[in-house]
Fold this sequence. Notes:
With 464 residues, the chain is of the alpha+beta class.
Amino acid sequence: MSRVSKPYEIVERALELSTTDGLVVIADEHSSANLRWAGNALTTNGVTRGRTLTVIATVDGAEGTASGVVSRSAVTADDLEPLVRAAEAAARGAGPAEDAQPLVSGVPSSPDFTDAPAETGSEVFADFAPALGDAFARARSGGRELYGFANHELTSTYLGTSTGLRLRHDQPTGTLELNAKSPDRTRSAWAGRSTRDFKDVDPAAMDAELAQRLRWAERRIDLPAGRYETLLPPTAVADLLIYQLWSSTARDAVEGRTVFSQPGGGTRLGETLAPLPLTLRSDPHAPGLESAPFVIAHSSGDSGSVFDNGLPLAPTDWVRDGKLERLTTTRHTAALTGLPVAPAIDNLVLDGGGERSLEEMVAATTGRALLLTCLWYIREVDPATLLLTGLTRDGVYLVEDGQVVGEVNNFRFNESPVDLLSRASEAGRTEKTLPREWGDWFTRAAMPALRIPDFNMSSVSQGV
Length: 464
């Protein structure tokens, strides 16, 4: 066994080996457990373990501070010195880093920094797996087939710096995706859930939801492209607003490159984006959506800086009561733009003050509207307006006077999430949701359903 095997010991030893002006060490201990199923039967399951070590060296020079970043997996004691030297060599060979700032200091140490990493395993599915088996039996008797997977990951991150930071965060991430199909595969419906521990997911309720959608799809109605009143479920709202958050960097806005740029110079901060009292916010301590309370940056980019590692994060309103309140900044871009420091946070919540569930919003519909299941293949068309295009998937349903009367064809859409906020006529009750498109990268979201009077279905799609 390696002489240095505990994560905190790896961090401490790497810091001891440093010969440069500054060093940041991030040890990520990963574990995961998963289940997969098809045709109402489990097919595979597995458990994995792993470690990734990221070393960030900084070197001060006459023209500024340079940084070098090297990451490797499965690191042992024997790998430490070559890894540190590689990061130092990368820093010495680089020019001054544009985002250079003094390394963060003065943050109280995590009391559990020297504790063993948290781990997940098959036991996380102890209650979920039997409930899933019951759902298989109901689906079989109801003439439908269930497909999908459940995945649970737990990452313990240990962050140490030459300025004395010793921080630790345990991040559980659970996702559940369930597809129901008719035996002839002509009808399909999807539901997804985000969870920290699989104790708050109900396969029976999800199966009942999917069974209802398959029944709706027994009647097929073809509709042309056009603008329709549309009910966007929380998962679709999440996918659109996550992309909006990713596009809300202050520097790009100040330099005139985004939808948040003010024509003629400056930003749209303070401008009303939505007539509804919508608040889009992130909070590392949001119940059920808890994320790292400090910056963890393995690399530098538009929305993050390795020099900010360990910087405490606070609740942040990006949009407050319909007005643009904050754009994302690092310490460097905050200084460049003159805006407050507002780093990205790994969750997103939209509150609109609504109390209706999606089902109640459907029942309250007068005239004709579309009810979506989810969006996918979302791509940016125009950064200046944040125009996005993408496809509907796994069920678009026609609502007439409060009743779902059948399934319609899929569409390609062209819409900007910023523009959608300005046109939304109703926001429902905020609830935890799993983004369908971005669920591999961003899982912690809570959104309401939104009613859009004129959602742009730009063309008919043959997708399913």
